Amino acid sequence: MSDLVFYTNPMSRSRIVRWMLEEIGAPYDTAVLDYGADMNTPDYLALNPMGKVPAITHRGTVVTETAAICCYLAEVFPEAHLAPPPGSPDRGAFLRWMFFGAGPVDAAVTNASFGWVPESPRDRGRLGYGSLERVADVLAARLAEGPWLTGDTFSAVDVFLGAQIVWGRDFGEMPDRPGFAAYAERIKARPAALRANEIDDALMRNAAPHG
Fold it and tell me: 54-61 — which CB contacts under 8 Å span 24+ positions?
């Protein structure tokens, strides 16, 4: 059994972690969990009391939350060059945009998917993201500065936040902006992204039907 175990369902944010795992290139085992009973067994709840995926275990360490998993993997597998080292000049930008994805982007896109849009200046002022349109504008301005979200170098930010841009555009939940289409094509064409999608798409095809 590998030191690294990935708990997933291919119809979830776990697909981001699959892509990250393929980027680092380390061997890992996969445990596919169905929604419902599988994610609420005592054994799994001991790993993630939220009863959700993704999660990983690595040499006795449990990590949940997609952004945290991406950060952790980038740091414990530095040979993949997916994060600047602590203390380096680029570290601030890496953390800034990683958690911009975990906070404003995720909240804005999720709220929009449920049909809730803040209308009043008061509501927008109380929200960390303000408005989905502003979030999209900020991302477009960032991408205008370089090919990747942290500048000239592909990083775990492009895995985590890049996947959100792709999914948001594909499902009509992220307003389109200049540069989004070209950026989406760049990240989707990465060999690790192609491998990850192939694995997860196969899992979806082979999954037992619900009901």
Answer: 54/6, 54/7, 54/8, 54/12, 54/13, 54/14, 54/16, 54/17, 55/6, 55/7, 56/4, 56/5, 56/6, 56/7, 56/17, 56/28, 57/4, 57/5, 57/7, 58/3, 58/4, 58/5, 59/3, 59/4
Q: How many CB atoms lie within 10 A of CB 207?
A: 13
Which amino acid is present at 115? Answer: G
Give helix then strand counts, H and E, for the chain. 10, 4
78-121 pLDDT per residue, tens: 999 999 998 999 999 999 999 999 999 999 999 998 999 888 89
pLDDT at 65: 98
Q: Show the tokens assigned to 8.
A: 């997933």
Give pLDDT tens digits for 113-127.
899 988 889 989 998
What is the pLDDT confidence band of residue 209, given thresholds at 50, 70 and 90? very low
**Residue the block writes with tokens 């060059």:** 81
Query: What dihedral do alpha carbons 2, 18, 115, 183 form, nearest 10°?
Result: 150
Cα dist. 4→93, 118, 156, 168, 201 in Å? 28, 41, 18, 29, 22
